[in-house]
Amino acid sequence: MLGTYLEKMKGTTTSPPRVSLTEIVWSWIGAFLGIGFISFANYHVFEKIDLLMIVGSFGASAVLIYGAVKSPLAQPRNLVGGHLVSAVVGVACQQLFHANLWLAAAMAVSTAIAVMHATKTLHPPGGATALIAVIGGAKIHGLGFMYALFPVGGGVLIMLVIALLVNNIPKTRRYPEFWW
Prior knowledge:
The protein is mainly alpha-helical. The chain has one domain (20-167). The relative contact order is 0.17. Helix content is 68%, strand content 0%.
């Protein structure tokens, strides 16, 4: 029985093939523009009015929507829906369990995963979005449920627009595979 269990850990396939240099370049361009635009806005526009525009989970979303454009986890429904539901779940957990941050963090991530599954919006960076709502600083906590709209919703929409524009320039790429 233990042998069968451990045998599963060997995996079943080989490493995926290397992507082309063209694919690497387009992934780089998309990620640079997506994160660059949001970062510029964060540090040159919104910081002056004490608002945030960027959260750490956007880096992981960039990997998916610019580097793995065919993945179901990278599609618009998952990108937008996954971040939004996870942000709401994270804020709710922070507000309900703020006296026990370990519990709030665990509840936020696990519940976000469950809600993303239930809504067909699974997007792995959403787990980080929920966690950031709990472990973020006073600025994040001060936003309350507005965190879901701004910075999360606004940032995700900017990244989506850039993904639509950049990923459809080369003939070899297409984004999205599906919307809903």
